[in-house]
Amino acid sequence: MTNKTPISICWLRRDLRLEDNTALNNAFKHTNPVLCLFIFDKQILDKLADKDDARINFIFQTIERLKYELKAAGSDLLVKYDTPESAFIQILKEYNVASVYANEDYEPYARDRDEKINQLLVTNEITFELSTDHCIFKPGTVVKPDGKPYTIFTPFKNKWLSTFSERQHQTENRPPTSNFFQISEDLKLPKLDEMGFTVSSRKFPIVDYMGILQAYSRDRDYPGIEGTSRLGIHLRFGTVSIRKILKDARKYSEVFQSELIWREFYFNIVWHFPHVAKNSFKPAYDHVNWLNNERDFSRWCQGNTGFPMVDAGMRQLNETGFMHNRLRMITASFLCKDLLIDWRWGEAYFARKLLDFELASNNGGWQWAAGSGCDAAPYFRIFNPTEQLKKFDPDLSFTRKWVPEFQELNYTPMVDHKFARDRCLMVYKQALTSL
Q1: In this model, does residue 257 exceed pLDDT 90?
Q2: Does residue 103 have an active-site annotation?
Q3: What is the average per-residue pLDDT within 377-389?
Q4: Is 343 tagged catalytic?
Q5: Annotation says 366 is catalytic
Q6: Which of 69, 85, 118, 290 is catalytic?
Q7: What is the CB neighbour count within 10 angstroms for residue 1?
Q8: Which residue out of 19, 262, 304, 318 is catalytically annotated?
Q9: Cα–Cα distance for residue pair 354/255, rounded to 1 Å
C-alpha cells in the first residue's frame, strides 16, 4: 500500500556518505521529508566475474553503516537489488514521491541510466535534480576560451586553478534540523548471498591520510614506503567528500592537489571523447599490430614475468586489490611495450582487480602507458623495469616482500628488454607510418 506522505528521495550512488553530500543537502532545502535510497544495480553486478568481489563487500559494509546512521536519525536506508528502472517503478508504487535528488555520475553507462530514469520520472510528473559532487568542476566546465576541451594536462590544470574558488567549493554539513523521512520498521537489506556474492577477506584502507600528505612529494614514488594516500576506493565510492580532501591537499601538498586535478582531467576526457572507453584516444594507435600472446598475458597477470618490479606490483594487486601508483605505470608499460599486448587487456584486468577502479583514471593511465592517449609524450617512452627497480626500490624492501625468489637461479626474465624495446619501436612505427 502506498505511503501517502509526499517525500523526496535522495538516491545515493557514488556518494556513500551523509556529510557534505550535495544532493542530500539540496533535498533538505525543500519541505518534503527525505528518504535515502541505494540500488545494487543488477546490470552491473551480474557482469562481475568474481563472486567474492571486495568492492561489493566494501559497498555492503558502507551501506550497513549508513543504515545505522539513518536509524539513529529516526529514518532508514531503502535498499533495492534490481535494475534502476525496475527499482523506481516499484518505489513509485510504494511511496508518494514528489522529487528525486542525486549526484551526477559521468561514466557512459551512468549517463544513459540517468536519462532513462529522468524520462520515467518526468512521465510521472516527478522532478529529477542532479548535482555536482563527485568532482569539483563538472566535466565540460573547465574548457578553453573558445569552448573546446583541453587535451593536454598542464593547460587544463592552469585553467582549473585559475577558476577554483575556495569560497564556492567549501564543505557543507547537514543542517541540525535535517528532515529525514521517519520510519518505525526496519527496511530490508538484501544479503550478499542473495545477490550472488560471498564475503571477502580483503581489508580496506582506513581514511587517515593527513600525515602522508605532508611528505607526499618526497615519498609517493617509493612502493616500499607508505607514501600514498590510499584514498582511491573512498574517492571511487564517495565515502569521503572530494571538497574535504582538496581542502587538506591545498593546505599540505601541492603535488597531491595536482593528482586530484589529474583525476578531473580524465573525467573530462571521457566526457568529451566517450570513444576512449573502447578505443584509442589517438585513432592511429588502433592500428598497432599487437602480438596478444595469451601465455605471456597469463604470466603477466600472475606476476611471473621474471622482472622483480613488475612481478611485485602484480602480486600486490592480486593479493590486496591495491597497486602502488609507480608500479601501475611500470606494469602497464611492460605489458604494452615489452610484450606487445593490447592495452585494453591490461585495462580490463585492472578493472577487475583494483579496489579503487575508476573508468576514467584507469583508462587514462593505460592509454598513457600505451602511448595512445592524450599525453603529449611520443610512443617511444618505454620504462626499463630493471632501472626502475634500482631507482625506486633501492633497498629491495618491497621486492623481497612480494617476490622472495627473485635472486634464485631459475628466476629469469621472460623476454630480453632491449630486444623487446627495439621490437616495440618497430611495430609502433610501422602502424603509424602505414596510414
Answers
A1: yes
A2: no
A3: 87
A4: yes
A5: yes
A6: 290
A7: 5
A8: 262
A9: 23
> Residues 172, 259, 304, 318: which is the catalytic one?
259
pLDDT score, position 2: 58
The DSSP secondary structure of 334-360, one letter per residue, reads IIIIIS---HHHHHHHHHHH-TT--HH
Query: Pick the catalytic residue: 279, 304, 318, 325?
Result: 325
Q: What is the pLDDT of residue 1?
A: 43
Residue 171 contacts residue 22 (beta carbons within 8 Å): no
- Residues whose CB is less than 8 angstroms from the CB of residue 252 and which lie 6 or more positions away in sequence, other chains included: 210, 213, 214, 216
SS3 of the chain: helix, strand, coil, percent, to 5: 50, 10, 40
- From 11, 271, 345, 366, active-site residue: 366
How many Cα atoms sit within 13 Å of 49 on the Cβ side? 5
Q: Give CA–CA dist 384/308, Å, rounded.
A: 12
- The residue behind cell 500500500 is 1
For the four alpha carbons of 203, 208, 209 and 215, in that order, the dihedral sign comes to negative
User: Has residue 178 got a pLDDT over 90?
Assistant: no
Domains and CATH numbers, the chain: 1-133 (3.40.50.620), 135-168+208-272 (1.25.40.80), 275-430 (1.10.579.10)
Question: 189: part of which helix (H) or strand (E)?
Answer: none
pLDDT one-digit tens code per residue, 227-240: 999 999 999 999 99
Mean pLDDT of the chain: 94
- Among this protein's residues, is 325 annotated catalytic? yes
Split at pLDDT 50, 70, 90, the class of 204 is: confident
- pLDDT-derived band at 435, boundaries 50, 70, 90: low
Q: To 5 degrees, how large is the angle CA 365–CA 51–CA 87?
A: 90
Among candidate residues 343, 345, 368, 402, the one labeled active-site is 343
Alpha helix ranges (H) inside 168-253 = 210-214, 216-219, 232-237, 242-252
Q: Write the DSSP symbol of residue 336.
A: I
Q: Is residue 11 annotated as part of the catalytic site, yes or no?
A: no
| Contact assessment for residue 380 and residue 290, using Cβ atoms and an 8 Å cutoff | no
